[in-house]
Design brief:
This protein is α/β, with parallel strands linked by helices and 197 residues long. The protein contains six helices and nine strands; from the N terminus they run E-E-E-H-E-H-E-E-H-E-H-E-H-E-H.
């Protein structure tokens, strides 16, 4: 049983997988508490129904998608071994969006680590993350991005993403930073520009 906030078929709007169609599963529960979070409705797991994992798996298989994105909230608050195993048995690619504050469970084809300063990620997930996506809200966030970059592997893709409500004020600084530090790329929340979930 998992606290299901919502599930839907859409386009991945952020990071390395941007533009890819996927089935999204949003789980309830998060104690990181980012002030700019755009999914605060997912923070409290108790207000979302506990749903049988087999039903969540069935809905994903019936969606027609070839990949599944597990997001939150913070999905690693829950053990995802059983859910991931069902996806993999049915040849669905598994993508995880996490802050990395809880122990890793599940078997993933792609891990997007989006670390937060107030609750830094664990070392284990840093070493295996496929993608590091740091949200930039103000200039001091570049220092946090640099600190996180030192904790991930050399193969990890690096992304800076403007915090949506601060987009106009921070995007010039992000562009300038990436021009000087080309190992980083810019992630835009393209789903918001397209007005899709």
């Amino acid at each position: 049983m998992l606290p299901l906030v919502e599930e839907f078929f859409s386009i991945q709007g952020e990071g390395f997988q941007s533009g890819k169609a996927a089935w999204f599963i949003r789980l309830g529960g998060c104690d990181v508490g980012c002030n700019w979070c755009d999914t605060k409705f997912a923070w409290d797991p108790d207000i979302h129904p506990m749903v049988n994992t087999d039903l969540i798996l069935k809905n994903a298989l019936n969606s027609g998608a070839d990949s599944v994105v597990i997001t939150g909230g913070e999905p690693l608050m829950w053990n995802l071994d059983y859910l991931c195993s069902g996806f993999r048995k049915n040849n669905l690619s598994t993508f995880l969006e996490t802050s990395g504050t809880f122990a890793l469970s599940g078997n993933w084809d792609w891990i997007c680590l989006s670390p937060k300063k107030n609750m830094p990620p664990g070392e284990n997930i840093c070493s295996i993350a496929d993608e590091l996506k740091v949200i930039i809200e103000k200039p001091e966030d570049f220092k946090w991005a640099e600190e996180c970059c030192l904790r991930v592997s050399n193969n990890c893709r690096l992304f800076l993403q403007p915090e949506w409500s601060s987009f106009n004020s921070v995007i010039p600084a992000i562009v300038g930073y990436v021009l000087k530090n080309p190992q980083w790329r810019i992630s835009l929340q393209i789903h918001k520009f397209m007005h899709i979930p």
